[in-house]
UniProtKB/TrEMBL annotation:
GO terms for cellular component: plasma membrane. Pfam families: TauE. InterPro entries: TM_pro_TauE-like, TSUP/Inactive_protease-like. The lineage of its organism: Bacteria, Bacillati, Bacillota, Bacilli, Bacillales. This is Probable membrane transporter protein. Belongs to the 4-toluene sulfonate uptake permease (TSUP) (TC 2.A.102) family.
Length: 295
């Protein structure tokens, strides 16, 4: 019973982060399962089974709060589902560990750009001039993000969210809601691939159930949270989280000194905190100016 509560809480926190920032449910949950000695393919299969339910709850919640660009969802789910299915079927034969640092480097740079854009160049009226996602953009993005999601136990959000946020004119709230909603199809496709290659008997249903319970409870809270946060602040939160998570991958791969890792983490956290404070001050200044114009 104690383990069930513990993992339900972890599922809750993972979904709260994922539903608020558009990423991290799979990465958080898979990392936890791997620490308990579960094989990577089985851990990823268990997480994706749980995500079938949690992403459905998250998608419904985001749609209810108006956080979803439905046309963007439709363009992402087909290539994303194909990538996830292929990645799940061939997980055991893929050099995921070798490729991951290079993907993280690219995403970290995107995170820096996202943070910079929402701090210094983002204008509130951008939300009214969002450009549609083209087919040429959605196909490679969906294939790569879906493939990475299945092979790494989490990758749909960490790849799709920063790429879409880097697109000028894209609303942070709609990106998070769209990525979370489209993830349902990716979770279903990856799960089918895992069941074909592994079989039902390999799935750890205890972990699946615990993660589902926590995720279902957190989904509507996270969707509401996204709805009320100003775009510039949400962009800063997401950008900083992208930098932190990908820096962790790079440090664990290329830096063996624990003191160096701590110093880098401290620097990132300080910069991230400063960015959040700056975003709050900018939001306050914007609201004051708008009140003056109205009066």
């Amino acid at each position: 019973m104690k383990k069930l509560i513990t993992f339900a809480l972890i599922g809750f926190l993972a979904q709260l982060i994922d539903g608020s920032l558009g990423m991290a449910y799979g990465v958080t949950s898979t990392t936890l399962l791997l620490t308990f000695g579960i094989a990577p393919a089985v851990a990823s299969a268990s997480v994706h089974l749980a995500e079938v339910v949690t992403t459905a709850a998250s998608g419904v919640s985001h749609i209810k709060f108006g956080n979803v660009d439905k046309s963007m969802v439709l363009k992402l789910i087909i290539p994303g589902s194909i990538g996830a299915f292929v990645g799940a079927c061939f997980l055991s034969n893929l050099p995921g560990d070798a490729v991951r640092p290079y993907v993280s480097t690219f995403l970290l740079l995107l995170g820096v750009y996202v943070l910079f854009r929402f701090l210094f160049t983002f204008k509130t009226n951008e939300e009214k001039s969002t450009k549609p996602l083209s087919t040429k953009q959605s196909i490679p993005l969906g294939l790569i993000a879906g493939f990475a999601d299945a092979t790494g136990g989490g990758g749909w959000g960490p790849i799709a969210t920063p790429v879409l946020l880097a697109k000028k004119g894209t609303t942070a709230r709609k990106v998070v809601g769209t990525v979370d909603t489209s993830e349902f199809a990716i979770a279903v496709s990856a799960t089918l691939g895992f069941l074909i290659s592994l079989g039902w008997e390999q799935v750890n249903w205890f972990w699946v159930g615990a993660l589902m319970i926590g995720g279902i409870i957190a989904a509507p809270i996270a969707a509401w949270f996204v709805r009320i946060i100003p775009a510039h602040l949400l962009g800063s939160l997401v950008g900083g989280f992208i930098i932190l998570t990908n820096a962790r991958t790079l440090l664990n791969t290329w830096v063996s000194s624990s003191s160096t890792q701590i110093a880098v983490y401290a620097f990132i956290l300080i910069v991230w905190a400063a960015a959040i404070i700056y975003s709050l001050l900018q939001g306050k200044k914007y609201n004051q100016n708008r009140n003056v114009e109205v009066s």
